[in-house]
Rab3 GTPase-activating protein non-catalytic subunit (Potamilus streckersoni), 1385 residues
Amino acid sequence: MSCQLIPLSHFGNIDSVRDFLFPSPMQQELVKKSKVKETGWDESWGDNWDEAMQQDDESGNVSEGHNDENDDTRNKWLQDCHLSLSPANDLIAVAYLDKMVILANKYDPEIKYKEYETNFSTVWEGSVKQEEREMITAILCLPLASQKRSTHGGPDWTCVIVGFSTGYIRMYTETGALLLSQQLHAEPVQKMKCHTYEPPRYLGLGEQHEELVILYKRAIVAVDGFSLFQALKACRNQVARASASGESTLQPPPLAYKKWGPQEQESIQDFYSCGVCMANSFDVMVTASVIGGQNPVIRSSGPVANMYITAGNGPFVGFFYAIEGFAPPMLSDVAYAVASKLKSAIMSAARYGLPDQRRQGTSISLSPNGNYAATTDSFGRVILIDVEQGVAFRMWKGYRDAQVGWIQVYEEESASGRTRYGHVAQFLVIYAARRGLLEVWLAGSGPRVAAFNVSKWGCLICPPHGILGLNNVTCKGVKIKEFQCALVDIDGSILKVDVPFHLALSDKNSRRVRDLHLLKQIKFTLRENKKEPGTFCIKIDALETKVKDFLLNIRTANIAQQAVERILSTKYLGPAVQGRILEACILKLSSLGGSNLEIDRRLFLQFCRLNEHLVNTFVALEKFNKEKNVKEGPAPTACQVLTETIGLGESEAMHILSQFQSCDRFGQNKPETELQFQHETMVYDVSSFLSCIECTVHVQEQEPSLQGSSAISLVKNLPEDKRSDLGEFLFEWCLSGNGSVSELGRLLLDSRLPSEETATLLVQQWLAKDNRSIESMAEFFNLLKTFTSLIDSSRLVAVDSNIPSPWWQKFRDMCAKSQNNRAAYMAAVVGQVVAIETINRLSLLSTSSGSKDHDTSSASSDASEKFSLQDWETVTVDMEYWERIIKHLEDCLILSCLMKRKPHSPYFREDRNEEIRISVSGLLEGGKGCITEAIAKYVARAGLKPEDLYRPVREETQKEGKSTQLEEQIETDEIPEKSVQKKIWDLIADLRQRFPHSLENDVLFSNCCWEYTVLWNKEPEEVDCLKTSLDFLKLVQNAVLRHGVAFMMWHMFVSKRFQITALLMDKVGRVPKDRLCRKDVGISENRLPDFVGQVVQLIQLMMEANCEMNEVPVFNIEHAWHYGKGSVSLVELAVDKKVTNYHLIKHHHHLALMMHAILILKIKSWKVLSLFDTRGRNAFFVDLYSHPYLPNKNVDLAVSAGRTQFFTKLITRVVITLLNSITAADCPEFPTYSLSKLRSSPVNKWPYIVLDLAHEFGLDIDFIKRHHVCELYSAGLDKLAEEVLLTVNDHESIGSELLQIVRLRIQYQFSICSNRKMLQVIPCVDPYVSGWLKRKSSGELIRPDVPVSLTCLLLSNVINQLREGHPEHELAVSLVDLLEMFQLY
């Protein structure tokens, strides 16, 4: 493992960031500025440049880089920006002048840069200045620890801290919202550094305080970390509340800070806070002796102070101390900046500065352990300083405009797996931008360990802080930093510098370092010499020689083993090359002494021998899979395979054949009689084969041997895809009848794989495909018999009579878990036969061994007889399990036939028809109702209706009289609809015989109802699914079960959506628009009336079931399936539900009916909840079994008036709808209509519903009836009006109201009659009648053009309703003559 640049993340839109920060005029200014900076480029790079270049060539770590010297200077825009990357790698902020861009890290699965998993995208951009000429001078991204339980201690959010030229410090959220703004000093902010909590490396090391340190021109401000964390948390909560409430004023809490003034340094460009430090006892005594003379006052410990190291000029580097526990003094009072000055006794822990008048420090970076500091200066030097001694002890020349950072690496894990945290290495990273070079140096006097050619326009980021707000408890298990040092390039890539610990080993002759280098060379060679599939950079022979040379020169055994593993995992090498490389390793190790080698090399020698044996086994198996075995004679029939090869009885064979014939008759895909194994499609290489096998090496006194089952085994927890590929490679060629069973058995036995694992792999491969033929059972039987004969007898026969044999139980479990029921059924039949033969064979062996020991003691004979008896009992227990699993698989075989049928139903949808895979274990673990649930899922996904599940009586009679020819019909691609339907009937009839309890009508209908409801909940727009669900629910006979299922449907699926619909309708006061319906309810405007209508049906079903509830039903399960354990079935849950409150259900029923009426009849300007009082509104949408206060008939008068008005408007809408349904095609003058047609109209039911509601609300029913009669006469529907008129009780009121309709009709006749007719009629009219007719009426007719004959009939009804003494009776009689004259003229 070598030092490398690992892709960390990527800018998804770096061009847009550049264009925002540097518009076109600014880019031109930037070019001019960059040209000015090019002065001094020809300055000498120093004497060690050639040496550095020579080290580049020797190290081999320098990749091909960028050497173009004519790069456009505009690429330096990123280096002119202020850039900060969060150590959690979740946020990055880029700023220039007064503009800032914030980018968040997001996972992008479709990112075009495949090596990057995450992508930075812009979340906010804009100008942040608040004062004139205010510019950004410093920026910092600070993640804050989460206090949530789920992510305790991890990063919660990241704060962006910005320093300005006005001295302001402003803090923003990730979205650019301002949290806090405060001016801590009236000078421009130069730098900002933050110190966060890090756990100490060892006990006794003091913890550093969290703080935010800000550098101004003549001051240093330290903000307390705890105060900052609490302030940011409070400000963020205030911003969230303000954005929710619309307020704009914030009250940020004050920050706790200290301010220091360094007076002894002319200018400071950069600084670092070293934290709290304390001088050692020796320095304390020396300082006390120098100051105190012969009688010094020596303290037990030195003063505790905060140490700050600065870079600038006058001096070049300064060390400043701030004593804790005093009032904040000026740093000049307590700091020792120049070596020739002693301030006071408080300066006992002071250090020397580095005075250099011409040199100006530009930046400084402190190592993670605080021992070293690296500075860059105006002379193009990088100087390494010992912080403890205060001296510069190393200098690099030729690094103008360089950027530096640090990486701290812990020692790698030891062989025992325990990490030794005591060894830590510090590496200095130097990014020479002008040279396009990134170097990694070992701290102190160490060598350069790596160098990379990179872009010249990047930025090196090395954040010293982690997550703010951690402590010694919350930091456990939290990754404080995602990276230590990263390089940001202008192409948008962010590369993390990764350094292994072994590069810290300074000994150039280190054996481990040399071997690791050779291992790296092997990996590099194998990776680089396969550019594209099928092409090589060098010939395979040369590659083999090169790799072999590297491998044989490795001295460390465990590293050589890693190299061999890497070679064996390289797919393109092939078994021949890998075999020769293993042979060379074996020869070399054998020549060194063989068994006299040290333990590591002996283990490595055994490892090579085992892998060489496996490679040879692969070659033999690959050759076997290419040779087809030619069989002589005719192929045996299915019956012959079962009886002769497997050894079943004739009756058993016929029973098994009948099961498969039933599957074929019901339409399951017939398997091919002879599978053709296309080896060309099965590409399996030796590397994949070896990756599935684990070699376990042991330390032995003698020469290691390959004999023994523990040396080679399959890898534990092998992925299913690899296990499937291995099984297909080993067995599929033979199972298809193309290979010799005896030859394959010999090869696998020679491979020394454990027989039990091989047999398990065989069974899994057999169960992997469901199209196995009966003829292929012969090969499976022979292979299984071969491998089980080598398994330990203790695994095949259990000693305890109450426990089944372990291996055969594992075999049955695999069959039970398989979803390929056809193959599992075949495997169970074969396994039962092999198990009986194996037990008989072991019994014979036991008997023969007993006869040879005839002269042994009687005690031994008794023990032998006891063992034989136990064997017989074990056989009995196993046989019970075998019979059970075979019975289960027979049932699942027929059940799977139903699941694979695709019905020709108009409601069938392909996107909904996901095949339902079932298995024995799945049905047993699913609980009692799992079988019914599986069938109900099929019914729902297939779109079957209740009538599709039962054969009609006529069809059933025909089936009993004669056998249908449909069973013998050969299925084609286009299956007739009736044929498919009859097959479904036959399947369900067969399943009812197998599962009589699970397929009881009530149980099946309840589950079908539930599954249809689940489908509707997934697609709320498909209201037909909800309707079909209720159709099934209506067929449930038991009221308790019907009540429970209806209540569960309401509680889990319907109530919430119904509540949203009611609130939405009450909010808008009319039928909601389509956009609102889809947004809130999830149903379109056109389907919303259907949904509410089905809710009405559901509530009615609950009300009926509540009244009809009888005894609780008892649900049974088939005897063969009562062993299952799992969740409670749906019907059991339904019958255990609490009894609902009938009056509360009825209350919801009233609401649903009114909502349905509004939606159906398009009634506007009505808020549906306003029709109920406060008590009624509070009782809605609570649990239906609760007993809240419900309204009674004595409600507020305003509510009653509103209900009456709503019902009258509803009836008016019903009449208008009925009138619109009459077509004028029957009669041009006045449309005739069928009375029966109007009576059967769906809209005509609403007046009766209104009367029921009015009765339950305690309203005046007769008033509503009179209004209905008047509206019908107003619409010209006189026949319907006469029927309703018979039900009115107040005759005088209805007579008066109808008389007004007569007047409106006569007025209309006068308005349309000719002048001649009017002159003939008016003189004959009584003056009182004429005046009455001239009065203006308050209402209007819906349809005024009614024949006069109908008006005459209406007038006669009016006369009948009014008594003779009524004031309007005489008027009505007078109108008779007028109407007769209208008819006459």
